[in-house]
């Protein structure tokens, strides 16, 4: 038997062809370009100087339009010029979640190590729709998704997880799997449910979900019991939330799981935000009952510090994923699958699919459970500090002590219109990114803290800024 010569192609360097990122020569082509990108990132961030650029959308739209024109020049401007000008404008015009006053949404500051790993994913560009496009990537995805699923379902025999584009896709898949397993399910959810669950019902042709009150921000158990008692014909899927987007609250998961058992309903828990508390020794008890769900959504591009996208749908048994089985002759013909080539199409409704698992695997290995737990603990501690600071300011009102890392507050005595105006003023001045949420019939400013580097001084500056900008 002859061994074929093992050559690694180098990027095309001949003529004026732009070099490729892969092969043994790819890194040499990339290195100088990365220098341009990194310099442009720094220059843009320095020019911005704050969490986002001042001027609001009109000003920024104009400056981006000027930078990018002509979008398709007749003669190319070359890699360096294009990278420098556009990356600089992109960085200048960013709402940068690494800035301590960028705290509006579940918009995470990604870890440098995860971004570095993502570069390798882009350079090699494996696509997870067939093994012959992603040999190591598919093996890594299988290992890491099983390990993550085992964190969620430690007592399950064959836990497994799908990698998704985020919580929205994970919730959609959870509803789809429930429909395929039980028939056209009626979703029953708290009023605190993420909007993507309602949209999933619409997308999948299911009836409008039954909504149960969540008067204090979490699903009311007596009301849920009543709703489940009233729905005695047809399959039911209860969806609960571990970490609401508006207030960072956790539904009574054990109580909800008890009710689902008693009424024979399936249970999905959306832990997009709160799921990574599993890594924290101090806080994992807040998720008691999570492993009683039939499926769980996790979003590692929130409290997992991954660049988008890094969603997970975990299930206690891989057999639950069977409804996604699908064949396309060019990707997973039966004879290939029988001969032992892994069948990847059943792991997503997408076809071409990025190896988002690489950055996740690198992060888990680099930090370990302790390192991730520490980041979770620091982030939650920053939220408690923020609440303490607000509590000490007579001009501000705190909604309640945070459970996760979301703090709702408002200038005392301000109207809802004044609260909304204050938020936009801070945005347009480029001084702070805060979110907004309704609770108890009023509009609140929302600080969603995800940056584990945030210091007490940073929080003090943010709070002082709000107090000083308030006009009632
Ligand atoms: C963020 C979030 C989602 C949606 O996740 P995406 O990654 O934005 O698709 C779903 N549910 C909850 C509770 C969330 O916080």
Automatic annotation (TrEMBL):
GO BP term, pick one? carboxylic acid metabolic process
Q: Which cofactor does it need?
A: pyridoxal 5'-phosphate
List every position bearing N6-(pyridoxal phosphate)lysine: 302
Q: Which UniProt keywords apply?
A: Aminotransferase, Decarboxylase, Lyase, Pyridoxal phosphate, Transferase
Span list, region Disordered:
1-28
Would the keyword ATP-binding be found if you checked this record's keyword annotation? Answer: no
Pfam families referenced in this protein's UniProt entry, alphabetically: Pyridoxal_deC (PF00282)
A Gene Ontology molecular function term for this protein is:
aromatic-L-amino-acid decarboxylase activity
**Compositional bias segments (type: Low complexity):** 1-13
> Is Transferase included in the keywords of this UniProt record?
yes
In the UniProt record, which is one GO cellular component term?
cytoplasm
Family according to the record: Belongs to the group II decarboxylase family.
Question: What protein does this entry describe?
Answer: Aspartate aminotransferase family protein
